[in-house]
Design goal:
Shape: globular
Strand order of the largest sheet: 13-12-1-5-3-19-20
Number of helices: 16
Helix content: 25-40%
Structural class: alpha+beta
Radius of gyration: 26 Å
């Protein structure tokens, strides 16, 4: 695969990045002669996170890089060869292991562009490949898309809460779920709208702006706070943002003003102060007054301390003059919903004659009934670029009808049907586009700044909508009902 702008992964191979049952099923398909049978799987989620309506899609470059590097090393094969069944004999056949050792992903991947808005039950990925390959990559694809999209969505919500002039810095590495979680979270947070990260590895790896101040330990190393401030300003006179709450916050602000005057005499400016504890709204107001009265009206007030979109909204509603928000734990771990809950379901498989057969998963829970077919996601816009409706249809059934059944909510609600012809001239766009065909990247992926700009523009647009932009084509509903019977 020749590709650029990928979110490079730092592992050499990914064959074993899977759940064990994917491998046992793979051997079963192999022994039944089904391993090369063409199949279609859809990756989607059922409920929107954080009490919202949608997610911001991200993680596509990691998916591409994963599939490019998908292979089993000699050590991997030897490891699998040592696995035993209940009888103490080898679990995996030698012929199957030889097949795995030569395996390369040769299928097709269809996906939206990073930064697109995706509603529940709409595919984040469509995978068309040999059954064995499509099954084998399930766990890894879910791992990459679920978490990345979840963090991007959380970041977009936090950035929106910070307002048009607020800057958001992601500070979550120390509380992230491991090294991989920290790196992925930093990239996804930047894509979702954050302005920078404290994660230097992510800054180097993904070219994200890095930012940071200093810790309380810096202050405590010196005999006094004012000496610590002076030492820091001397070390970084062109980047002095000082943490003021190690001892007494207001006294700390007064000390920064003294150091700020000394910096100004040397031709530099005090960039900011940081508040990390206490009543942030009250302290920010008092600090702002002190700074303004001393002639430091451009000195920013940075706030941290368990912030998220809810806390930021409260602080801004209370008039807190904070312009930079350091958000860590609650962003990097998606504190209030730490998993997206995406699923990966078989939607169609070819029969012995090469004809596609739709497949459906049934359940007593309506939300767990899957959608069959080669699904395509069509979005309709008016002439002002406003999204009007989203239509899920089966490409195997041809073009969808220009009418959509819109549920008032995603579960157990009466539906209403809209006729798109009556809405005037609409622009339609199919969001699932070929990204990989026959194992090869079809086009360069967007770089991170482009995906970030798309995410921020889309989030602002969709968050203002009064109702769900969500639809289900009538043909698909009829086909689904037929299969359920």
């Amino acid at each position: 695969m020749s590709h650029s702008h990928l979110a490079r992964l730092y592992r050499p191979d990914f064959g074993l990045l899977t759940d064990f049952y994917q491998l046992t099923m793979a051997q079963g398909y192999f022994r039944q002669g089904l391993h090369k049978r063409k199949a279609i799987f859809n990756l989607y989620y059922r409920r929107a996170p954080f009490g919202g309506d949608f997610v911001v899609f991200s993680g596509l470059p990691q998916v591409v890089d994963l599939l490019d590097k998908l292979c089993f090393s000699v050590d991997d094969i030897q490891y699998l060869g040592r696995q035993q069944g209940a009888d103490g004999k080898s679990l995996f056949d030698e012929t199957f292991l030889h097949y795995l050792q030569r395996l390369k992903f040769s299928g097709n991947i269809y996906a939206p562009k990073e930064g697109e808005i995706i509603y529940p039950n709409e595919p984040l990925l469509r995978v068309e490949a040999d059954l064995l390959q499509a099954q084998l990559v399930e766990t890894a694809l879910l791992n990459m898309v679920n978490f990345s999209s979840l963090v991007s969505t959380k970041a977009a919500r936090i950035k929106a809460a910070a307002g048009p002039d607020g800057r958001v810095l992601e500070f979550g590495l120390r509380r992230a779920q491991g090294i991989d979680g920290g790196l992925t979270a930093s990239r996804a947070a930047y894509l979702g709208g954050c302005d920078g990260t404290s994660n230097v590895w992510a800054g180097r790896y993904y070219d994200i702006p890095v930012a940071g101040t200093h810790a309380h330990a810096w202050i405590m190393v010196f005999p006094s706070e004012i000496e610590a401030f002076r030492a820091y300003a001397d070390a970084l006179p062109n980047n002095a943002t000082l943490l003021v709450d190690t001892y007494d916050t207001i006294e700390g602000v007064k000390n920064t003003i003294l150091v700020g005057r000394e910096l100004r005499d040397r031709g530099h400016e005090l960039l900011g102060i940081r508040l990390d504890s206490g009543d942030l709204a009250a302290l920010a107001k008092e600090a702002r007054q002190l700074l303004d009265d001393a002639g430091f009206k451009d000195t920013a007030i940075v706030a941290s301390n368990d912030l998220d979109e809810y806390e930021i909204t409260k602080l801004r509603a209370n008039g807190a003059p904070i312009t930079v928000w350091g958000v860590g734990t609650r962003l990097a771990t998606c504190y209030d919903q730490p998993a997206l809950g995406g699923v990966y379901k078989l939607a169609a498989i070819q029969d012995d004659h090469g004809h596609w057969q739709p497949k459906i998963k049934l359940s007593e829970q309506a939300i767990k009934v899957s959608n069959p077919g080669r699904l395509q996601l069509r979005r309709y816009y008016d002439d002002q670029g406003q999204p009007i409706a989203s239509q899920l249809y089966d490409e195997l059934q041809g073009e969808p009808k220009p009418s959509i059944e819109l549920p008032t909510s995603l579960e157990n609600s009466p539906a209403r049907v809209i006729d798109l012809k009556a809405r005037g001239s609409l622009v339609k766009k199919d969001l699932l586009q070929p990204i990989i065909e026959s194992g090869q990247l079809t086009q360069p992926l967007d770089d991170l700044p482009t995906a970030r700009a798309r995410a921020m523009q889309n989030y602002a647009l969709y968050a203002e909508l009064d109702e769900h932009v969500y639809g289900l084509s009538i043909e698909l509903a009829e086909q689904k009902n037929g299969l359920m019977k």
